[in-house]
Amino acid sequence: MKILGRYTGKLGDIAIWESEKTRDRFYLEGEIFQSQSSATGESRLPYVKMMEAFSTMLARSGKNVTVVDHNPVSFDVAKRFFGMPKEISCFVEDFKEYLAAETRSFDGIAIDVGGPGFCYEEQFDPATCHSITARLKPSGRAILNMLVATDFDAAPDMISSDLSEGHMTSWIFDHPGRLNRNVLIACLPRLRRAASRHYMAKFSKTVGCGWVLRRPRQPSHGNRPVVVDIARTS
Ligand SMILES: C[S@@+](CC[C@H](N)C(=O)[O-])C[C@H]1O[C@@H](n2cnc3c(N)ncnc32)[C@H](O)[C@@H]1O
Fold it and tell me: N or C: at which end does the chain have fewer Cβ atoms within 10 angstroms?
């Protein structure tokens, strides 16, 4: 492996590595592995391929693409080392603030945010989930990636429930039992129950890689916490 570039990031040092054997490129921020792709920019990460397939929002397919990242270095890294087309509109902003201020509607919204100290449950609070669904066209879809440590993490279910509002519904793609895994939450217009299940099952077969598809379990962020009174025995 050789180092192609080093940057000082907001949340830790950023390093871009290249494998001398495969020529694949790797992006590390602090201790966190952020990306891997071929030198021409094809992602090696199954979850990114799945996000691409779901949201149909690639510049190559003729859609206008807007990219938001709070770290300006990410755009430089993406354009210099990961094949991001130079003409894509880039906004340096926190994704929540960007969504709250944006007034346009989109065919697809793909959200892949994270890094050192990032907390999905806090960042994707009910107001942010609402900003996501509010910025979609009536037939639009959103997909978001999150990192989950264990099966006991309730954040995917909370966020997914909060994304199921109005005419939108959501599904969770997961690998239950794996530690520190990617979980994808797909949000799409509510179809008839059977049609929706059929569509999502067909989609998950297309993308492969053994994802398990399920609906969110309640509760959402909005539910009150359960308080358990434990009696003292001594
Ligand atoms: C996992 S990387 C994205 C990888 C990319 N999707 C790919 O295909 O390789 C996560 C990105 O989220 C950005 N990020 C983290 N927190 C953010 C926030 N609050 N608002 C906007 N961007 C954020 C980081 O700077 C980093 O570039």
Answer: C
Mutate to test the pocket of ligand 1, among 69, 99, 181, 182 (most ligand atoms within 8 A of CB): 69
Nearest CA, atom 3, ligand 1: 112
Amino acid in position 120 = Y
Distance (angstroms) between ligand 1 centre and the Cα of 229 equals 41
What integer pLDDT is reported at residue 9 of this predicted model? 77
Cβ neighbours, 10 Å, residue 217: 13
Residue 57 covered by a domain = yes
Residues of the chain with pLDDT under 50: 57-59
User: How far apart are the CA of 182 and the centre of ligand 1, in A?
Assistant: 14
Residue 51 lies in a domain: yes
Whether residue 4 lies inside any domain: the answer is no
pTM for the model: 0.85
Give CA 177 to chain center in angstroms.
Answer: 20
CATH code assigned at 74: 3.40.50.150
| Side-chain-side CA neighbours of residue 105 (13 Å) | 8
- CA 164 – CA 73 distance, rounded (Å): 34
Domain that holds residue 135: 45-228
CA of 94 to the centre of ligand 1 (A): 10
Here the tokens at position 85 are 């087309």
